[in-house]
């Protein structure tokens, strides 16, 4: 299958069951009282619920929850399918909390066309080749959350997002329709919405305490972010794993049209087309057209369409606690998503915890299961059952270093991190130069040039920093005398002119040491958005401007003897649009720099 294929925004679909007690919690009202007999109460040891309920005897049922939206415009409120598994004791009066996962993937994903990226910038895109069918995602993982949590007194709800499978409506890639579809299940579990069985008989969630925790990976982790940003009552905690916090940052960057890693040409409209697995999908043709128009692939600007899909701006509404999990090498849902969400939550005093690992788009169940499951157990017990354990007394952040060892931090970015400028200093060969703490003299202005060639990958252009190349500029430090750690978001600023109205701008942060160069992080910009990501500005060819853009956040240790490198190029083959070669960018290196978030600041270099 071609690498342009639309992916499933997850590594696996996961399900969690939950349980809750019925006392007044330190975190707020738990919900309805637990009226079960003493023999069916939960068992707690070492601050964690224990497996005393039978999974084999658990009750499984399916309901269709009525939402507050009519996303397909048929005059009827959408209903979303929800499958439930809960301890049999809930039929005898036991009331339990819920672990809830909403997913658009339960009925698979269709092969759909994506955009051709071999186009001139700001031109109307044509459709690319049709993609083949991808494998159907798993509905659950044997031995995972359902097996683990239902015996501990939780219920699990697995629901199907609007427009997918047996749910009504249309997929809308993260806006209010999908959010209202997600919220409806929480409302039903709290007695504020209606649900029906397949025969149309109304079903009550009278076994629910009303306490809900959401979780999931990728899209399934994004919908918890979206629901939490509405402040919905009853959602006590979320555990978003590899999750999107702003769909603009998934498909755009500083005005540039950017692909999710490995999926060149995908955009919001064909994502919706891919998950449109309901019966009679043609009912959503108008909605898909609206997505195509709203996403504005031509300019790449942030607009109202993207604002509706930006959850960070509503972080002040979040009432749920948040346990963030993200890979530092996730180039599908890039690191900006966890960083911006984490910072916004912190600014609004939301209780939070975070794991950062060295993997990509994945879940800790696959690589740290022995610690992950007990930690998750304690987390849900604390927030949904009001069990007094030490999960909120632990260090806030667990971070995995490059050697795969785990360490704890009080917060993120790391303590004593300071933005540190490294100035570009041109070399005589005009193909790059050095990086230094002190700016170089600007008396004898020495410009440097490079020419765009989108057919050359960034990985190739990062190689051989000491050799001449007309397609990039490389600036490197001397070998480091001791290790330095970056923690946060690097930012690049160049003074440059372009010989045409626009071009791509890309920056790479590279480790040069033993073996092949390693691209630590990277960032992109449409130079027409030099003033704001919300507005493109007409550029005059050959006129100098100051272009400033961020790179993807990271936490990385350069070792003693390594050299820190910055590579400036134009098109990035795997991420940007790919125009015909030839755009010439001329920069003034003496008025250009990179800002690195370094633990210890300038002292780290001295």
Automatic annotation (TrEMBL):
UniProt-recorded Gene Ontology molecular function terms: aminopeptidase activity; dipeptidyl-peptidase activity; serine-type peptidase activity
Catalytic activity: Hydrolyzes Xaa-Pro-|- bonds to release unblocked, N-terminal dipeptides from substrates including Ala-Pro-|-p-nitroanilide and (sequentially) Tyr-Pro-|-Phe-Pro-|-Gly-Pro-|-Ile
Principal EC category: hydrolase
Entry's family note: Belongs to the peptidase S15 family.
Protein name (Swiss-Prot/TrEMBL): Xaa-Pro dipeptidyl-peptidase
Signal peptide (residue range): 1-28
EC nos: 3.4.14.11
The keyword Hydrolase belongs to this UniProt entry's keyword annotation: yes
GO BP: any one term: proteolysis
UniProt keyword list: Aminopeptidase, Hydrolase, Protease, Serine protease, Signal
SMART domains: PepX_C
